[in-house]
Amino acid sequence: MPKLSQKAVDMPASPIRKLVPYAEQAYAKGLKVYHLNIGQPDIATPETAINAMKNADIKVLEYSHSAGFASYRNKLAAYYQKTGINVNAEDIIITTGGSEALVFGFMTTCNPGDEIIIPEPFYANYNGFAVMAGMDVVPVRATIENGFALPPVEEIEQKITAKTKAIVICNPGNPTGYLYSKEELEQLAAIVKKHDIFLFADEVYREFCYDGAVPHSVMNLKGIEENVIMIDSVSKRYSMCGARIGAVISKNKEVMAGVMKFAQARLSPPTIEQIGAEAALETPQSYFDEVIAEYVERRNVLVDGLNSIPGVFCPKPSGAFYCVAKFPVDDSDKFCQWLLEEFQYEGQTVMMAPATGFYSTKGAGKNEARLAYVLNKEALEKAVECLRAAIEQYPGRVEVSEDSKNLSSVG
Amino acid sequence: MPKLSQKAVDMPASPIRKLVPYAEQAYAKGLKVYHLNIGQPDIATPETAINAMKNADIKVLEYSHSAGFASYRNKLAAYYQKTGINVNAEDIIITTGGSEALVFGFMTTCNPGDEIIIPEPFYANYNGFAVMAGMDVVPVRATIENGFALPPVEEIEQKITAKTKAIVICNPGNPTGYLYSKEELEQLAAIVKKHDIFLFADEVYREFCYDGAVPHSVMNLKGIEENVIMIDSVSKRYSMCGARIGAVISKNKEVMAGVMKFAQARLSPPTIEQIGAEAALETPQSYFDEVIAEYVERRNVLVDGLNSIPGVFCPKPSGAFYCVAKFPVDDSDKFCQWLLEEFQYEGQTVMMAPATGFYSTKGAGKNEARLAYVLNKEALEKAVECLRAAIEQYPGRVEVSEDSKNLSSVG
Question: For position B277, what pLDDT does the model report?
Fold first, then answer.
């Protein structure tokens, strides 16, 4: 049998999905499992999007333009303008999800062996997309104690080599929920300008900012217009994860011409789901107001609940619908597996994503886990109860001084 | 501004789309343009597929499984079994179109610098997918005089080096319409076995075989089960190009595990269009009988019409809905552009895809063009009339001896 490629070996298995067999064991035992491990919201997709797909009068399900329907690109540009983000229709190429947008963006800008700097913890699939493009990920450490704020500029600059081609951020962040301030983005812009590298920003959680926090888009940063590539997606914004509609956005004409060649090779993004995404742009503000109010309540239930458990610390995120919490345990991979394999509390247990999969540095995040607050408040309350009981019972529990906990009450 | 990657430079621009600006000039002059340049059929999508998407009761448009819905994979396996092709559900990973299937397949099996052998002319986007995976395409020449039959085995074997990782075929072929015989496939199997390389077969046109010709799947080749990777798609079979639903199929568990890691990184194929693809499997045979009867008539109108033009030769294809024709012209790129830019016949003209884009060898196919018979018979008759007049008027016309034409009446 011929050998597989090195990429097939290097591709990471999904850290979020590797516990699935243990979850299946838990179901088999009749346990109720609270799934805080995945970013699949239970929020209803806007009816305007669903109805547009149902009512589309299609006789022949044809390809769209490789860059996506012109009508969609025009309306999407109008959405950005209305949101105060400087984007025109010609700056947009519609992709099959944010995933494809990242792959095309990476392949257009980076050669095999080039380095991209990413503050860790970061969305685990960035590793996979980097493997696909043959790039090396260079992490720079954000800490839970600082609420996952941007690491100091000097630390980022220390990582820059002749091979550095880009910095990649997710804002608001998955898995941290951290929202970069305008000042932090301007610090990044200064580095990007000084070293003339690209800045990728995955802004798919833009709509989910809480407590009056305002998201700032990299598209509005001055002086680095040619360096910025924004990644977007309808997946989370309209709870349309299954639509697989995203976008690459840049003012850099050469980048867009490069991305377009990759887009042409795969012909087009999905037609019907583009129709849904276009219609979703007419979702009324009231939908977001309701969704955001819901997420704020969920976040408070989950994060306040976690922080009320002795030895647990979770910075309160300002955006997205994830948080990373630190647990008083020896190894969160083992803890997460134990929750499914050996633990139960009144017939229930919790599934979380061990944070190690979100760090590129070996051993980092060993006592952290990501939790997605994509379930309703009652479920989250029960999940917190489960975790409280679990921490008491877990054989690998370690003592944490209250000092180190207090240190962390930032963010 | 930072430099783009070498891949962005190497990615070929679509040879099919590069004439679009000239077509737009033709529209601006008020000309009717017969589009024989693209493989977008005008055939209606089966109602069963359209209705399933319309009637899907979706509240939250969620991700599917990364390998596609289990229900779809099960029914798809049943379709293959019914078609006499040895495939089980666990041999299938659903992808976003045949395009993604090829990219995942190539990335799973080939390292940068590895070589893949492809009989040319071949589907132009294979070049793009090879660039994405960093592979080198090594063409082996099929000739119009032989109706684009498989090149002699010795010629294929001569191309095999230590870097050769796979042979790639499209069967029935785009752009040639050639259907490989069982004997030809067994010849390929022998080479694949002898050199222990992979065999990729793009079988998306399987349903379109004419005049009683029977397609043979590589999945049924004996002794190379671990080497075979089949690519499939609903795009052409059910006229669902815009659905972007395809599949990677292999009995090789390691290959499938590798592909699965790429599939997990991009989360899932589109949900609603998968529902449509699953329902499309219930399309009655009468739909295909009608569609095939229609394509046979179209093929006859186009191919017989082309062969009736002095100096033009077109082997009659047994499958798919393309043909490659040889024209008595100096340069078919120039000829195709001239048709749009300077020619008209009673207010009409024809758009074709110059064949050079389907050859990897520089200069090959210089007097050939691909025509897709995706328009109705009346339109095809008029297109032939246009081409007859065009050949008479074209300033770059070259004389062709009737001898060389007769030589070619094979296939």
Answer: 98
